[in-house]
Amino acid sequence: MGSKVPIKLPVIDFSQLKTNDPNNHSIWESIKTDVYKAFQDYGCFEASSVVSIDLQESVNDALKELFDLPEETKLKNTSEIAFHGYVRSPKVPLYESMGIGNPFIPEYVDEFTDLMWPHDNPKFRESIKTYSKKLRELDEIVKKMVFESLDLEKYFGEQMKATSYLLKVMKYRAPEPNESDIGLHTHTDTNIMTILHQDEIGGLEVQLKNDEWIPIKVAPNSLIVVAGETFNVWLNGRLHVPFHRVVMSGNVARYSLGFFSVQRSSSLVKSFYEMVDEEHPLLYKPFDYAEFLKFFYKEGGIQSKFALKNYCGVEN
Ligand SMILES: O=C(O)CCC(=O)C(=O)O
Ligand SMILES: [Fe+2]
């Protein structure tokens, strides 16, 4: 009886891409193949060497400092937009989060830092700015590769313009002995794409196509890139959008962050014309993302694992 080898997500090293390298084109093409395949097979992959260990450590420290602030300070971060303010909910008692919209715009990080630390916190300010810029670059590279893989380059510019971003930082406290260990319930991300980072505590789990759940353990400065439902609607179902969840163990708090790209409501989310044919019949009717979110949060959509299908799925 052989012992089972634990399944790992594909690891893709983006540090090989250097703009002034003459081999850049072939490197780009080879990474592009890996990215598209990983999205089809797993819906996610480990992106290594996008940020340095030092930068990642500064960001990890920054998160701890932020969540250590008194509750009344954290509550000052309010917003009408989902997940941009300070979030706590009895449905996810271990979880708390805060968000910064479009964090690669330096003024937005300045505003957030001023609100949390009226006497300043230069380390937080600078590390979040540099980090967000790097994540924004990775977001663009990955999407460009997927668009190219399907000959959809002509849509790339307009889709990027119609995108807004959220950097969500999260803390999960350790459960009490009589509490559930679920940090975040099973879900798919309904936005375009998410870049996640978790600290050394771990706890993120992803469901594979064969329904098996695997724990995600990646290098300390690796990121996990996850395909979201909006991306999959654009491509009319060509990606796997993975269910994932956070399960806590031990008695130490866990910190993570997510860089979410979201389609703005200036245009409808819809499958590209070229993605629909006899072999690939239309799966989703065009919809407005903000309207979908209203359904998701207010009409109980969040309780359903298949909220988007229920909202705008086409019966084939
Ligand atoms: O905390 C994590 O690692 C995962 C967070 C997540 O999946 C989400 O916010 O959608
Ligand atoms: Fe998620």
From TrEMBL:
<protein>
    <recommendedName>
        <fullName>2-oxoglutarate-dependent dioxygenase DAO</fullName>
    </recommendedName>
</protein>
<dbReference type="InterPro" id="IPR026992">
    <property type="entry name" value="DIOX_N"/>
</dbReference>
<dbReference type="Pfam" id="PF03171">
    <property type="entry name" value="2OG-FeII_Oxy"/>
</dbReference>
<keyword id="KW-0479">Metal-binding</keyword>
<keyword id="KW-0560">Oxidoreductase</keyword>
<dbReference type="InterPro" id="IPR005123">
    <property type="entry name" value="Oxoglu/Fe-dep_dioxygenase_dom"/>
</dbReference>
<comment type="function">
    <text>2-oxoglutarate-dependent dioxygenase essential for auxin catabolism and maintenance of auxin homeostasis in reproductive organs. Catalyzes the irreversible oxidation of indole-3-acetic acid (IAA) to the biologically inactive 2-oxoindole-3-acetic acid (OxIAA).</text>
</comment>
<dbReference type="InterPro" id="IPR027443">
    <property type="entry name" value="IPNS-like_sf"/>
</dbReference>
<dbReference type="GO" id="GO:0016705">
    <property type="term" value="F:oxidoreductase activity, acting on paired donors, with incorporation or reduction of molecular oxygen"/>
</dbReference>
<feature type="domain" description="Fe2OG dioxygenase">
    <location>
        <begin position="161"/>
        <end position="264"/>
    </location>
</feature>
<dbReference type="InterPro" id="IPR050231">
    <property type="entry name" value="Iron_ascorbate_oxido_reductase"/>
</dbReference>
<dbReference type="Pfam" id="PF14226">
    <property type="entry name" value="DIOX_N"/>
</dbReference>
<dbReference type="InterPro" id="IPR044861">
    <property type="entry name" value="IPNS-like_FE2OG_OXY"/>
</dbReference>
<keyword id="KW-0408">Iron</keyword>
<dbReference type="GO" id="GO:0046872">
    <property type="term" value="F:metal ion binding"/>
</dbReference>
<comment type="similarity">
    <text>Belongs to the iron/ascorbate-dependent oxidoreductase family.</text>
</comment>
